[in-house]
Amino acid sequence: MESTFPVVDMGLLQTEKRTETMEKIKDACENWGFFELVNHGISNELLDTVENFTKGHYKKCMEQRFKEMVASKGLEAVQTEIDDLDWESTFFLKHLPVSNVYEVPDLEEKYRNVMKEFALKLEKLAENLLDLLCENLGLEQGYLKKAFYGSKGPTFGTKVSNYPPCPKPELIKGLRAHTDAGGIILLFQDDKVSGLQLLKDGNWIDVPPMKHSIVINLGDQLEVITNGKYKSIEHRVIAQQDGTRMSIASFYNPGSDAVIFPAPELIEKAEEENKLKYPKFVFEDYMKLYAGLKFQAKEPRFEAMKDMETTVNLGPIEIV
Asked: DSSP string spanning the chain?
């Protein structure tokens, strides 16, 4: 197994190296829960524009507010580890089922339009990736997209974050360790200031900043649907003393009323002891639970959903 962080060149899927590239994606999903995409089809020009607007907006509208928050909480002078707060400045955009890009305050019109265009490109990329995962898992094309669909289609949104320089990075995390609750996450991150780390075999490993790449990671729902073949991985952001790190994470998640359960084909293929490891639940119920337990281990969340399952009859599992 390769020990360097997996980087997948999507351009190679159209060449004789397709099989090798699919194998690389499979290995990344099974052993890392993360990989970095290059040649993903989103133009460098669009990425540069998104980055420039995001950094400009932070400077103009958010930096001062963040400094005031730090001052009001006395965070420069902390002596002990802070475990109930993240050193980050964020805002959220919703794209699906309904966009709020034109309602979020303080954004320049051009920035709104650019984020809308970026979201459309990311949505296509997410759906393309889900089909590549289906192919690797031996599921029919479109299975994962359908599993996420619910009655109104998937939920898709973006968390725009800046991680300003932090005087005590050893005491305050940029973002505390967690797994992502949702489906597939597409991250456009700063290529100069690092900070993102994932937990692998008990060690924290840096996710390398690479210009114009998109980092992909898998959320809890893909772990459930693949019956544990793919895992969501704990990750965190280490605050840095120099430089502000930009992070634009887009979450392609199931619709709120989508019913999530392990794919029947994968259960049939599983070894006896792994026949059915994961519960069946409505995504919104999982999110309600996650909201209070985000920075804790995911296993008790799955257990809690199992307990709920016995009390809620979700009807027969539809074998597609």
From this structure: ---SPPEEEGGGGGSTTHHHHHHHHHHHHHHTSEEEEES-SS-HHHHHHHHHHHHHHIIIIIHHHHHHHHHHTTGGG--S-B-S--S-EEEEEEEESS--TTTSTT--HHHHHHHHHHHHHHHHHHHHHHHHHHHHHTPPTTHHHHHTTTTT--EEEEEEEEE---S-TTTB-SEEEE--SSSEEEEEE-SSS--EEEEETTEEEE----TT-EEEEE-HHHHHHTTTSS----EEE---SSSPEEEEEEEEE--TT-EE---HHHHHHS-GGGS--S--EEHHHHHHHHHHHTTS-SHHHHHHHHHHHHHS---PPP--
Write out pLDDT tens, residues 121-136.
999 999 999 999 999 9
Instruction: Determine the average pLDDT of the residues in 9-35.
Output: 98
Quick check: 142 pLDDT over 50? yes
pLDDT, position 270: 76
**pLDDT band at residue 274 using 50, 70 and 90 as cut-offs:** low
pLDDT per residue as tens digits for the range 59-79: 999 999 999 999 999 998 899
Report the alpha-carbon distance of residue 27 to residue 229 in Å, rounded: 11
Q: Which residues pair with 241 in a beta bridge?
A: none
